[in-house]
Amino acid sequence: MNSVFGSIFVNIDKVETLLGPNWGFAVMDRLKSSARLMIVSDLDHTMVDHHDPENVSILRFNALWEAYYRHDSLLVFSTGRSPTLYKQLRKEKPMLTPEINIMSVGTEITYGKTMVPDDGWVEFLNQKWDRNIIMEEASKFSELTRQAETEQRAHKVSFYVKKDQAQHVTEALSKSLEKRGLDVKIIYSGGIDLDILPKGAGKGQALAYLLEKFETEGKRPVNTLVCGDSGNDAQLFGISGVYGVMVCNAQEELLQWHAENAKDNSKIIHATERCAAGIIQVRGHFNLGQNLSPRDVSDLTEDVDNASPGYEVAKFNLLYEKWRQAEIEKSEVFIASLKAVCVRTDKDARPLPY
């Protein structure tokens, strides 16, 4: 198992070049100091529950994030999906827009809504990498089935392989590529996906690279929480000092990695709730901040002590949603609550934290 997942280490040569003054973090300039919390979450079956047609858990997470975290924290999505499939998922599910995207199993890093790529990460991954040689060697294994063209990326070559054949293929292919002089990593996840990446790539390495950038800028997050469910998330949990949640529905491959590598790490736990609900649950367990979503409050017309502007916006959206669905019985109370939020004198107004 260790040979599949590899070790967590980023050796960045020429740091002054890769971490130059224009290193692509303008999107985070809104934070004047270190983020209070950075959540780094996988998408499929972690943040997004494909068995939840009403999207209850992710909507709970969204409301909580907008109410209490958006103004001083960072959201990072770390997914095995290519940009094409990531954008498709955004059309299907009510996902927030993160500050940072780590895509294609940690081989692509982009910033903001426009998804500006990190050129330094691309330069780093080019070392000892040749897709043509990889395709040539992989073609010798009949057990491998090439994935769709959208999933073949500049620094990721992807196949399907049956679970009972994965270990043999991984070991044999690793040896053949090493003989050809390549420095690669092979990751098996989901009981079917086999990804070949540069040795320095992966979700964990991409996160380590980002944290080093933050460190250089003097803005390393106060706390970082990583969240996952499958084998390609394992490396996230190997980053020193982070908190981690394996959601309730985590796959056997990740639970096995944890048992072999991190069972004594008290900062990593297995949630008892699925997907985004598990992320919310663990945030409270580690005392990383508020874990009561506005969607869990029974009467949104009541004031909440020390409510933030973000909470007021989340509450307004939820009240409007309930009103459109005819779920507000006492309309006059509802309207009075909206007026209390929207119509305030200068004396009563709270300063925005943004």
Could you give a quick summary of the protein structure above?
The chain has 354 residues and is an alpha/beta fold. The protein is 36% helix and 14% strand. The protein is built from 12 helices and 12 strands.
What does this protein structure show overall?
By secondary structure, the protein is of the alpha/beta class. The chain contains twelve helices and twelve strands. The protein has helices at residues 2-5, 15-18, 56-68, 83-92, 119-125, 131-138, 163-179, 203-216, 252-261, 275-285, 309-324, 331-342, and strands at residues 37-41, 74-78, 100-103, 108-111, 116-117, 145-146, 157-160, 184-189, 193-198, 223-228, 243-246, 268-270. An eight-stranded mixed β-sheet has the order 5-4-3-2-1-10-11-12, sandwiched between helices. Strand 2 (74-78), helix 4 (83-92) and strand 3 (100-103) form a beta-alpha-beta unit. The protein starts with a helix and ends in a 12-residue tail after the last helix.
